[in-house]
Amino acid sequence: MEPGDAAKQARAAAQLRKGVLEYCVLALMRDSPRYGVELLHALEESGALATSQGTVYPLLSRLRRDDLVTTTWRESDSGPPRRYYALTDGGRAALDEFTRLWPGFRDAVDAFLTTPHTSNGDLA
Amino acid sequence: MKTFADPVRNYLSAVERESSALTADRRQELLADLAEHIEVTRTERPDAAIGEILTELGDPRTIAATALAEAGNGTPGTQAGGDADVPARRGKVHPLVPLLMLTLSLPFTMIFSIGPDAAFDPGAVFGFLFRVTGAVLLCTSVHWTAVQKTTGVLLAVVVPTTVIVTWNVISGWAAGEMQALLGNLGSLALMVGTAVWLWRTRRA
Which of B43, B72, B101 is the last residue of a domain? Predict the structure, then answer.
């Protein structure tokens, strides 16, 4: 594979990630509050959503500014206190909305990618 | 532990350097988040080399660039249903602003004008600036269609200006007070009429 192809693939993955990452982060907090390193672990394990870890913190910061999440400090048995992120009502609403839209979006993309196109004169 | 301090400090000051375009509190928040991440990771994975932790955290430049991008769109466009089609900021001026600037440019000229012989005539200069700014704001506004904008500029700017300049040139600035006043009032009526029409036909 040429280096240009690798770069193009990386760009496609990065573009996709950009759109869905914040909702995946919100989804990770759905059941219980999580702290930063924990969130990053989960993203890492997913494979497709793994990203340069440090870039998730600015995202978390914006989610907090937009009132989609709140943060609280909690003491830990080992090491420093941790900042836990939890969904607000607004965050839950945004997550629900995304959850509602996603299947249609996913199916539409699948349809584009799998439907055979007839532009090569198949109809002739 | 002590040997760890320097790579971490170097890393954080690299982030600080790269994110100098952020506001001070955003930058401090980012640095605090990253410092906390490094400390927590070090407790959870005592065997990991500090270099490894920093490599996983990523390039300071990339982190700073992401922080800048996130700081740029602080609007709550992430709320349910909200679309990202926010009109350009420049078009969001209140529709009254261009209309008032266009209409008031003439009375402004009349009141503050001290005659064509002065080297600097504040009325003419500021009236002209008002008119140009009003026209630009009108044309970049999201409240009117292209046809409405063209008509507005023609009626409220081009026609009155042409009439006044032509009048002045023909009469050689020698027209009587009364005639000048009538001419100005006529132009003003045209401008006000145009502004009222634009106001009524604007889009919300």
Answer: B72
What is the pTM assigned to this prediction? Answer: 0.56
Closest chain B residue to A26 measured between Cα atoms? B78
Interface test mutation site (partner A, options B16, B33, B53, B59, max chain A beta carbons within 10 A): B33
The per-residue pLDDT for range B75-132, each reduced to its tens digit, is 433 333 333 333 444 457 788 888 888 888 888 777 777 666 666 777 777 788 888 8
Q: H or E stretch including A4?
A: helix A3-28
Which residues in chain B touch residue A17, judged by CB atoms under 8 angstroms apart? Answer: none
- C-alpha–C-alpha distance, residues B97 and B130, integer Å: 11
Q: Does A106 touch chain B (CB under 8 A)?
A: no
Q: Is the ipTM of this complex over 0.85?
A: no
Query: What is the Cα–Cα distance from A35 to B40, expressed in whole angstroms?
Result: 10
Domain count along chain B: 2
Does B77 reside within a domain?
no
Domain membership of residue B79 (yes or no) is no
Provide CATH code, domain A8-114. Answer: 1.10.10.10
Q: Is B202 on the interface with A (CB under 8 A)?
A: no
Domain extent at residue B26:
2-72
